[in-house]
Amino acid sequence: MSYQVIARKYRPQRFEEVVGQEHVVRALANAVKQNRIAHAYIFCGPRGTGKTTLARIFAKCLNCADGPRVDFQDDDPRCREIAEGRSLDVLEIDGASNNGVEQVRELRETVRFAPANSRFKIYIIDEVHMLTAAAFNALLKTLEEPPAHVKFLFATTDPEKVLPTILSRCQRFDLRRIPTRLIAERLEAIAEKEGVRIDRGAALAVARASEGCLRDAQSVLDQLISFCGEHIHEEDVLAMLGLASRDQIIRLADSVLRGDRGGVLRQLDALEIEGKEPGRILSELLNHLHRLLLFQLREGDTEGMDLTESEEEALARQSKLVSYEALLRMTETLVQSESKARTAVSPACGGGSGPAPGLRAARRDPARGGAPGAPEASGRANSSFPIRAPRAKRARPSGSQAGGRRECAGEKVSLSFSSR
Fold first, then answer.
1. What global pTM score does this model have?
2. Statement: residue 196 has pLDDT above 80
3. Neighbour-count burial of 218, counting CB atoms closer than 10 A to its CB (0-12 exposed, 13-18 middle, 19+ buried)
């Protein structure tokens, strides 16, 4: 048998295996149990959060042998057909390549035929937002009043592009990004089944890099197993992905909050020598400062913030170094720096973009909400760009000189003319 990647091998096959989408799982399971099954559903959310997976599992619940039921048998032949993509009554359509009126017209012709050997004929349309406006309009009547044996399951990463007339005819479920802790636990469980040891720090690093996308995290784990072998260390993850460790980001934030410009530059130099990307460093620093803002607003309540014990201690210590107003100004400055870094020829020094300019926002008088102990900023001394001093005005010549000379922009320009 050919090798199967981890993301496909460990794809959830039942509702209880889905990670981080309890609100959607509960609604769909109750709909099946109470026999309140709508004719159209749309799953919205970022990539890799389980939209198509939930659609397939829901299709299994509807078309299983003794269904509709949530607790279907694993060896049910109809469920196995759906999992393997060979069911005649569950049709998966790619919206990007079947986005025209002609394809929708063909679909309208096929919905009239009864299912081959199942209870329902189910159409799963992935990336449905790629359909043209004309195709959406051609689908309206069929979507509003489909035959009793037809169910539509849509999936999209961009619901804003779906026509409101389509959304109003569907039950909408918004999937959220999966928390870092749940992704790390899932990676550890997969690694154990694969006979590989993965450190807790390494699993957390992969989970943070995936930004809430479980499929991305599983793909990285697949790559790490090839890279590291039977034991994955945090240092291997940081080296392969070009990430900075949490301790490095916390120390960098300490230097920024204390107004230690030299310390910031030294740490940035060290990270650059290690091959870390300046843009990613800035992004991770912004994420840390955003958590610090939330920590201050919530007065130390960390419930739901998905933090480790060391991160909670760091936030508690750093919240005493700076006021909320100064921290907000600092974050705004770094957001502007991140925007400049994206368009800079050299991200490391693109127009003053990077963590160092964020010091300017914190270097204020403590009485005005700046960082305690930080020196007071004066005027434009800390500006990212040099300010050229205005030229002193020269004395205007008088008499005959005024007729033969004219000063323009600080330079003498001679004008010759004859007086009559």
1. 0.76
2. yes
3. buried
